[in-house]
Amino acid sequence: MTTPQETDLGLSLEQSRSGLRDGHRRSLMRTLFLVTGGALMVFGTLQFLNNHLLLASAEFLVSGLLFFGRYRIRRTPNLERWIYGYLISGFSFALLILIVPDASITAYVWILMIPVLSYLLLGKRAGFRLSAPFLLAGCVVYAVSTSLGNVIAVIDLLNLVLCAVLMLAFVHIYETRREEAEMKLFTMAQSDFLTGLANRASFHSTLTRTVAECARSGSGFALVIMDLDHFKVVNDTMGHDAGDQTLTRIGTLLTERVRTTDSVARLGGEEFGLILRDLKFDDSYELVDELRERIARMEVPYGDATIRLTASFGIAHFPEHGRSAETLYRVADRCLYTGKQSGRNTVVRAGVSAVRAAGQPSDRRTQS
Ligand SMILES: Nc1nc2c(ncn2[C@@H]2O[C@H](COP(=O)(O)OP(=O)(O)OP(=O)(O)O)[C@@H](O)[C@H]2O)c(=O)[nH]1
User: Fold this and answer.
1) Which of 54, 98, 123, 357 is the least crowded, having the fewest Cβ atoms under 10 Å away?
2) Separation of 269 CA from ligand 1 center, angstroms?
3) Three-state secondary structure call for residue 111
4) Does 3 map to a domain?
5) Ligand 1 atom closest to Cα of 194?
6) 329-366 pLDDT, tens per residue?
7) Looking at per-residue confidence, does 1 or 347 come out higher?
8) ipTM of the modeled complex
9) Ligand 1 binding pocket includes 330 (Cβ within 6 Å)
10) CATH number where 247 lies
11) Same domain? 209 vs 149
12) Is residue 39 part of a domain?
């Protein structure tokens, strides 16, 4: 059995709430470091030519720091800290410039960049928490530093406040919609459209995570692969819709029986996968055999007819039969194949396995 490409969907979801993806955030930060570092280099040179040596030195120093940051941000594990450091010092610097008595009125346009950068780099919640106070401070600085004695100055202030509020609202609405759309896409990408169970990609992601968690905690789990027997007959004799209803019922039956900490997925077609956590080697057989019996007893009414079927199961146990998702998959799949070969309606465990088929006089023990 081939396993799909490794993905960590939980991590993807988490990243979806932090604005841009990590890779994009790093590229944006590198661009910001380059642009602001380059600009400070130019300003520093101008100050130097103007004989403002102290200011020129400070600007050269910060410029050097920004170029160093541009190099470090590519691989740093502390991306969030770098982003906060850059944004808070950048925004504070912008406010400081506004306090300078002969600051140009055009310096206020930088205030409007605050929500855009915060939301792109930090996501909706953290972006709002950072940009709202800075926007407010920008408006207060403007009001304090300009005398609001005439109508034009008041109109200027109102323009600034209105623009800042609208910018914040637009970015907030945009980010909310983007986050919702991305969540929806992730949910769709993780679920099987027919049964609503996790799909193959999501199951593999869960399996990889479970292996890592159990390796750390020392607990075991069972990987079960189940395939319905002669399912083609249901489709061929009663139609595709009957087959679909049966698959949905099977999904419900499996989900109802296992624990909420377990995972159930439809791997494709009439094949399902289960991860049964914190189970002892012997107990997994008992549970899976109970599932086999339940399916064999299940009746799916369809029109005047009743659909009955059976299923075959293969079980591999962590860590006894493999320490990686791929090995466990391979072992469980081989057990399933053995079960199909031995007459179906079976449960086969890796190692010494019991094969119990309906209508057979007694259990058979099989090596797999
Ligand atoms: N109704 C329905 N049928 C599906 C779906 N996906 C796969 N199938 C059908 O499942 C059947 C699988 O047939 P086979 O691979 O021959 O397996 P089987 O008939 O169960 O036989 P064994 O596995 O050997 O016991 C095919 O008829 C597929 O068309 C689905 O989403 N809905």
Assistant:
1) 54
2) 6
3) helix
4) no
5) 31
6) 999 999 999 999 999 999 999 875 444 444 443 333 34
7) 347
8) 0.91
9) no
10) 3.30.70.270
11) no
12) yes
